[in-house]
Amino acid sequence: MIAGLVLPQDAASQQGRAADSTKYSYDFRGSTVKAALEKLTIEASIGVGYASGVLGEVQTDCAIKDALIEEVLDCIVKDTSLSVEKSSTGTYRIIQTKTSHFRAKPPKHTISGYIRDARSGEALLYATVFDRSRYAGVTTNAYGFYSLTLEEGQVSLVASFLGYEKAEYEFNLSADRTLDINLQPSSFGLDTLVVVGETEESIEERTQMSMARIPVRQVQEMPTLLGEPDILRAVQLLPGVQSGNEGTTGIYVRGGGVDQNLFLLDGATVYNPSHLFGFLSIFHARALNDVTLFKGAFPARYGGRLSSVVDLSMKEGNMKEFEGEASIGLAASSFTIEGPLKEDQTSFIFSGRRSLLDVALAPFSASDDYPNYALFDFNGKLNHRFSSKDRVYASVYGGSDSYSQVNEFENSENNDPRNVFGIDWGNTIATFRWNHLFSDKLFSNTALLYSRYHLETEQEDVRFRRTESNELVQERFRLLYDSGVEDIGAKIDFDLIPSPSHHIRFGGQVTNHRFSTGTLQLNEGPVNTPRQDTLLVPVSDINSLEGAIYLEDDIKIGRMIGLNLGVRGSIYTVDNTTYNAIEPRVALRISLPFNWALKASYTRMSQYIHLLVNSGLGLPTDLWVPATGNVKPQESEQITVGLAHTIEGAYELSIEAYHKTMDGIIEYKEGANLLGASQSWQDNVESGKGKSYGAEVFLQKQKGRTTGWLGYTLSWSDRTFENLNDGRTFPFRYDRRHDVALTVVHRLKDWLSVSGSWIYGTGTAVTISTARFSPAILLDDTGLQAIPTTNVESELLGDRNGFRMAAYHRLDLGANFEWPSKRGGAHLISVGAYNSYNRRNPYFLFIEENLQESINDTELVLKQASLFPVLPSFSYAYQF
After folding, report:
1. DSSP assigned state of 42
2. Terminal CA-to-CA distance of the chain, rounded, Å?
3. Does the pTM of the predicted model rise above 0.70?
4. For the chain, how many structural domains are there in total?
């Protein structure tokens, strides 16, 4: 018995002749052969017959584009025991293959290579390579390498990257092939954000969630503080990311602390990413190539922190020609130069930046009470290609901040006592990496890493006193605090890409940490006597060793399902204590109709270091300390679910809900602080738990002359410590119920773009006193004897973080002008206004006494101090 759709002979013949030249595109993956044939016979108006019972529930994995009808039929039955026959009348018949249960699979071959910027030779990270005929594609890795394995036959290849013109290739794939692809920057002015290739992987096609990639060019066009583009200020505008104090670049991600963020610069850890007391980050936008934020669903290749990963890659340097940029702004001046040492083989980039505040204040520095402040940093990178399989990179960062202030006071002896305060801090980072291509499917990166953060604070008081013999003696009291952390490590990572549906990553790393946990020294006595330092807190450096291995597989099951399965194992030793952890990572994507996708993830993280935040001194004197036998590591678990959707090909929408628990968080005990500690820091901390949960909405536009995003966060975050706040749960300081950020960049002309950012956030949680009193007497320790007192004032504190400051909001505006120079370069001027409508946002609260004369009493009034009014910004740059 013959089943199926059979047309009359004349009609079938006519339809068959019409179908000879018609091309079809289908994706039948996940369907049965029978369902696919039924759909095809209706839409293509062809006759297909088959014997009853032949098809059964045989599955097909067919996906094909722009193919003739016979090619579609062959695709439907490939890898099955079925074959297609065509009659002279133009109808088709599906029969059981007699010679073999399965038809021989076509051989497969691999296309591999690098995708680079055609103008500079810079690697393009996470670019897309896609075969239209098979609906199969991959993305480049963190070094621009890709590997695409396809069945033998005609290939229609498209390579695309945000802000670049597509490159298309048509060829017959009959053997493994190396294909390096150079993409031309978009011809639309200088805006690298306006062109998205049609083959770009959309948000609903990516398994990864809770991730954002930030185009560096967009950051340079956004409003700035004092004219300096800042990557971390842009990160603060993303949903799920809270900023710290007014104007600072600290980030608090999904209820986590500032120490729970892993900053990586070319693979090396950055411990303090701040300049200018937190108002500027150390990451120079003009020296960066790519910035990626993970705030959940962490891939197994990342570890060591609980809340986020900010992975930054430096530029490699132009392989084709020399170019550079020099700029001057209100916050800092900088220059960048890059170019080839040997064209297409060796290149370099060097960037330096320095503040001009000390220069501006120089005329006043001889006067009393004027501070002296300076910052500088530099980035350098050298890369060399030994062959098509081997490449090495050497990069370095160095930066420091220095602040000092001298206060002189008059006295009756005509000798001026003096108070000197100084603080210096900075980072030194170096990496050496070797890329090696074992085969067209296996890529490796081996790295040696060094990172050091150092802080030194000094306070000196010089006073005069008269001896018993009436001699005037000058004495000095000097306090020196020194701390830091130094890492030396190595890591190796492998990328194995056996097919477009599997991307396997595995590797390991080892790091030796050396912590200087706060050497506190006191020097006291006459100025002219030899210096004799007293070690107030006798501590020595702590060395610890941390190691990890990981395995991760990004799997695609047809077009409907994506999985990222991973596991990370870590071990940590310090003194005679060893900790270890197994950290599973799972992410799932299920494609839904109408360009929607359902996503979910589970992540477990471990962190073996802590940051002790010393509220009595303020930034940047916080202290990095290790987990020890007495202080346990931090751990977290996070579950995230969400929806992703592309709207009209131009807007990406994501909606995510998360729940995160944290254990092993530490804080100072009540009343304890850094300089007040007379014993080890381990005896002055409390360990507790944290919890955060909430929902985020992110709408982003990356096409057209207008780009930007809108983010909204609804969240709760709290802490619980047995011996803090009477053991009761209290809000985290940066718990904010609502957080909104709108960022827009619009290019009016090729030479002019305007931008704006509006931010709103629920007020910060703080602890305030509920009563203040001045007792007439105090009792001694026995409670039996009264001790007379005068001017002794006490304060009764309310619940920890039980009061909220006023809501925070501001509008930043900016404009960028760009025009060519007669000498072949370009001029760039950026102007703007930070807090343009002059919102008096609270920076901190204080209590002030007001005398009420009518009743001869005082009234306690809670007041707020604000930091920044409207601030103009300006910078000028010349590109050559």
Report:
1. H
2. 78
3. yes
4. 3
pLDDT score at 673? 61
Consecutive 10-residue averages of pLDDT for the chain (880 residues)? 41 45 80 83 80 74 83 83 76 68 69 92 91 86 92 90 88 91 72 42 89 87 85 91 77 92 95 84 90 94 95 93 91 92 94 81 56 87 93 95 74 58 90 95 96 86 69 70 90 95 95 82 53 51 94 90 96 94 96 92 96 57 85 96 90 95 89 59 87 96 88 95 90 91 92 93 81 46 42 58 88 93 87 91 76 61 81 90
Instruction: Identify whether residues 87 and 153 lie together within a single domain.
Output: no
Distance of CA 545 to the CA centre of its chain: 25
Domain end position, chosen among 134, 166, 201:
201
* 251 neighbors 242 (Cβ within 8 angstroms): yes
| Beta-bridge mates of residue 65 | none
Calculated CA dihedral for residues 197, 202, 208, 214, nearest 10 degrees = 50
Long-range contacts of 721-728, Cβ-Cβ distance < 8 Å, separation of 24 or more: 721/667, 721/686, 721/687, 721/688, 721/689, 722/686, 722/688, 723/669, 723/670, 723/686, 724/667, 724/669, 724/670, 724/686, 724/688, 724/800, 725/799, 725/800, 728/799
Question: Could you tell me which of 853, 850, 867, 273 has the C-alpha nearest to residue 611?
Answer: 273
CA–CA distances in Å: residue 118 to residues 166, 320, 325? 12, 9, 20
pLDDT value at position 579? 96
Among 73, 66, 69, 6, which Cα is nearest to 33's? 73
CATH number at residue 74: 3.55.50.10
* Residue 177: CATH number of its domain: 2.60.40.1120
Does residue 220 fall inside a structural domain? Answer: no
Task: Tell me, yes or no, whether 58 and 143 share the same domain.
Answer: no
Give a yes or no: residue 125 inside a domain: yes
pLDDT at 465: 66
Sign of the Cα torsion 291, 296, 297, 301 reads positive
User: 270: how many CB neighbours lie within 10 A of its CB?
Assistant: 21
List the domain range (segments joined by +) for residue 42. Answer: 2-96
Is residue 228 assigned to a domain? Answer: no
